[in-house]
Amino acid sequence: MLLWVIAGTDQPFALSSAPQRCGCPGVTMRRLVWLLFLPGFLCQCNPPVEVPESLIAWTGACLSIPCRYQSCLLNPRRPNNPTINSLTWYLNPVYDSEKKDFSGTILYKHNATITPAFAGRVRFLGDLERDCSLQLSDLRASENGTYGLRLIFSSTGQKPEEKKWMTKISVNVMDSPPAPQIQAPSKLRESVAAQAVCSVAYHCPDYPITLTWVGLGHRTSEPTMRMGSGRTESTLTFTPTWWDHGTNVTCRLSTPAGTPSSESSVVLDVKYAPKGVQLNATPGETIREGDRLVLMCMTKGSNPSIFMYSWYKDTQYMHHQWQEQRLEFEAKGDEHSGSYLCQATNEIQMVPSPALRIDVQYAPKDARVELVTGSQIQEGTMVVLSCSCRAHPPVSSYSWYRNGQHLPAQTQQELHFDKIHPDQSGSYHCEPRNRVGMSESPAITVDVQYAPKEVRITLENRQHIREGDAVTLNCSVGSSNPPVTKYTWYKDNSQYQETQESVLTFPATKERSGSYSCEAQNAISYRQSSSVSVDVQYSPTGVHVTAVPGTSPREGESVTLTCSYTSSLPAPNSYAWYRGSRQLEGSRQEMVLKIITAEDAGRYRCQAANGIGQSLSPPITITVLYAPKGTNITATPGADPHKGDPVNLTCRFSSSVPANITSPGCSNCQSLYPVLVASVVVAVLLLIILVNVGVCYLLVRGRRQAGAKGSAEASCTMKQLIVASGRRGDGGGNTDGGLPTPPPSD
User: Fold this and answer.
1) Rounded distance between C-alpha atoms, residue 405 and residue 428, angstroms
2) Which of 174, 196, 215 is at the close of a domain?
3) Residue 121 and residue 85 share a domain
4) Distance CA 488, CA 500 (A)
5) Across residues 149-175, what is the average pLDDT?
6) Which helix (H) or strand (E) covers residue 146, if one does?
7) Which of 331, 544, 589, 686 has its Cα between 20 and 30 A from that of 644?
8) If you average pLDDT over each of 318-322, 421-425, 461-465, which comes out highest?
9) Based on the structure, what is the number of domains in the chain?
10) Cis peptide bond upstream of 304, omega within 30
């Protein structure tokens, strides 16, 4: 409490030592307006000094009253600062209204002698500029009460005035040190840093005390001590843990000698999430299907208490379960096997337990056989059958069956066929076993597919095939999986025809004779049969006659006639020869005309027969060549013509020119006939010219001998030479002087 006696008034008024905002209590409006004109007085100067409101001390200790001037009173930077005229410390001051001043036990007065009762115990620690602190040692119980600071100063300026203040501090002198006060958060949070402050409203450098914390041990940092302004404080900074909840923390006050004198304690209320959350299973973690399982969510502590439990299986929330600490159910195989955990939730946090694996063991179930290598099985490929099931614990052995028969050598989960054979087709099933029991799988069918086997071609005709008959070929297959979808027929290794039927029928012709085979094809592959020969029998074809050395032999030579053919099945077994329309003797393939004469000339043909039929060849003309015969020359008008008469000479002869000449390498020599005729004509003309020249020469010579001597030399003149050639008549005979003509063909 600060009392301020204003000059010119008869009543003091009180100013609170606590800082005020926008107002000065106890000051009337009239007086306030007047006070505003006082130099250095402002509302923020209430109080003019800074002191604690109260202090605690005890007998034997010392009292230190901290005091500092407010800057609004004494400010070195401001000109015309007030001058302190008087500074007095009182014990239990009392205001005397008559004297208008305070009276009481003076502890210290500036520029005055200290009262003997306090000599050696009172020490003014301040000055008249900044500090106004006071220290009293070796306190006594009688020194309990109110201590006051009386300040009187003069203002400077145009109107100097004197101003007075009284500042009071309550001091409680106790018989023993008081218990320190502990200020700690009412609600601590785990892992959140917090501070606890232990304080005593006491501080004296000549009698220092110590505040010590007890209860948290080494888990805290070193406390921070703060002394001054009449207080001693120890600040403990710590991070509480959940096990600090309920801990009794003590602050102990010790004298300078180190003797504990007093202490205070608080119980920490640490809020923390559930601790030690774990899951317990009864009767255990491994059970058999059908057993009763009880799960309990246990914790080691929680502050505040847990209000909800949550259950999870394989990380999935179990919505259908009650939010209770206990979970109970009848175990069912894979449905209840898995990883379980619970979560305990309080107001602080939700904390999960470690996962607990529950193994519900059961015999194999849902056993089945699967084809690992694909749905289509082909002969020769690798096939793997796998026996799968659900079982806990895992399957320890497997049994395999084919068509109900046990396969004792097969005990693994997979049944291997490195190169499967059609004989291994059938119905397969397996039986898996574990230590709980066994089960049997449904059977699956293994259908081994393969290309057609034993493909054969058969000629269905039992007798010899003659041209025009129906030929039937049958392509038979021993086995095929899947069935044959297409037949391909080959003739002489070339594709002949494709059918969907296994029988091929066609009319027999010689062109269809050959080697036949068939190919059967299914969805897997194809297979070809061996070949069978189809021989279509027919009469000889292309029958013709050849003559060696040719068709125009000279008279007296030999000619060999051969009856040839292009094809015949079977081969001809008899032959017949014809000249003109007359059949000649002989039935062999060759006929030899030895020492041929003109009478042998004519048109020849042959006939070949093989039991199936007979064929007649086209005719071949044989022309026999011989020299001209019966040559005769006649002259017209006579043998003695006169000089200058024309003479016609006619040469008549008989000759045979073959109608057809055949020489080696000449396939058709009838085109040489005009050349031969021309050659014969030229030869005949030359012969006639030679004969006429000779006759002319004889005539001229005879006339010279019979004529007169000295006459001119006679000459022989032939004005016309006519040579007539006789030709063969249509009947085939020869005419004198003519050339033969080719015989007409039949």
Assistant:
1) 9
2) 174
3) yes
4) 9
5) 86
6) strand 145-154
7) 686
8) 421-425
9) 7
10) yes
In a domain, 44, yes or no: yes
Rounded distance between C-alpha atoms, residue 112 and residue 88, angstroms: 9
Among residues 60, 28, 277, 310, which one has the least CA distance to residue 176? 60
From first CA to last CA, the distance across the chain in angstroms is 176
pLDDT score for 48: 86
pLDDT tens per residue across span 375-410: 789 999 999 999 999 998 999 999 999 999 999 989
76 or 33, which is more confident: 76
Structural domain boundaries, residue 463: 450-523
Report DSSP letters for 14-59, one per residue: EE-SS--SS--TT--HHHHHHHTTSTT--GGGSSSEE--SEEEEET
Give the per-residue pLDDT at 742: 37
Which conformational region is residue 229 in: left (phi greater than 0), alpha (psi within -120 to 50 degrees), or beta?
left
* Same domain flag for 59 and 203: no
Q: Which helix (H) or strand (E) covers residue 13, if one does?
A: strand 13-15
One domain, residues 191 and 242: yes
Kindly report, residue by residue over 620-675, the tens digit of the pLDDT.
999 999 877 777 777 777 667 777 778 787 777 766 654 443 444 444 444 444 55
**Are both 159 and 96 inside the same structural domain?**
yes
> What CATH number is attached to the domain comprising 188?
2.60.40.10
- Going by C-alpha positions, the residue among 102, 70, 76, 85 that lies closest to residue 155 is 85
160 token code pair: 């100097």
If you average pLDDT over every residue of the chain, what do you get? Answer: 82
Q: Which two tokens stand for residue 385?
A: 């059958």
pLDDT digits (tens, 9 = 90+) for 710-721: 333 334 443 333
**637 and 738 together in one domain:** yes
Considering only CA atoms, which of 180, 198, 247 is closest in space to residue 219?
A: 247
Domain-embedded: residue 472: yes
Cβ–Cβ under 8 Å, residues 473 and 503? yes
The alpha carbon of 690 is separated from its chain's Cα centroid by a whole number of angstroms, namely 114
Q: What is the C-alpha to C-alpha distance for residues 211 and 206, in angstroms, rounded to an integer?
A: 16
Contacts of range 428-431, beta carbons closer than 8 Å, 24 or more positions apart: 428/369, 428/385, 428/400, 428/401, 428/402, 429/369, 429/400, 429/401, 430/367, 430/369, 430/385, 430/387, 430/398, 430/399, 430/400, 430/401, 431/367, 431/398, 431/399, 431/401
Q: DSSP letter string over 637-652?
A: S-SSPPTT---EEEEE
The predicted structure's pLDDT at residue 158:
67
Contacts of 184 (CB under 8 A, 6+ apart): 194, 195, 196, 197, 249, 266, 268
Q: Looking at 319, 354, 389, which one is the last position of a domain?
A: 354
SS3 assignment, position 547: strand
Residue bearing tokens 């059938």 = 426
Going by their DSSP bridges, the two strands 308-313 and 338-345 should be labelled as: antiparallel
Beta strand pairing call for 470-481 and 503-507: antiparallel
Residue 509, both tokens: 């012709």
| Cis bond before residue 394 (omega within 30° of 0) | no
Q: What is the pTM of this model?
A: 0.45
pLDDT at 34 over 70: no
Answer yes or no: do 568 and 497 share one domain. Answer: no
User: What's the CA angle centered on 73, arms 70 and 75, to 5 degrees?
Assistant: 85
**Confidence tier at 319 by pLDDT (50, 70, 90):** confident
* Distance between CA atoms of residues 605 and 745, nearest Å: 11
User: Measured between alpha carbons, how far is 338 from 722 in angstroms, rounded to an integer?
Assistant: 140
Pair 289, 403 in one domain: no
* Residue reference for tokens 């400077």: 156
Instruction: Name the 3-class secondary structure at 306.
Output: coil
Strand ranges (E), 535-625: 536-541, 544-548, 559-564, 567-569, 574-579, 582-584, 590-593, 602-609, 614-616, 620-622
Say whether both 463 and 570 belong to one domain: no
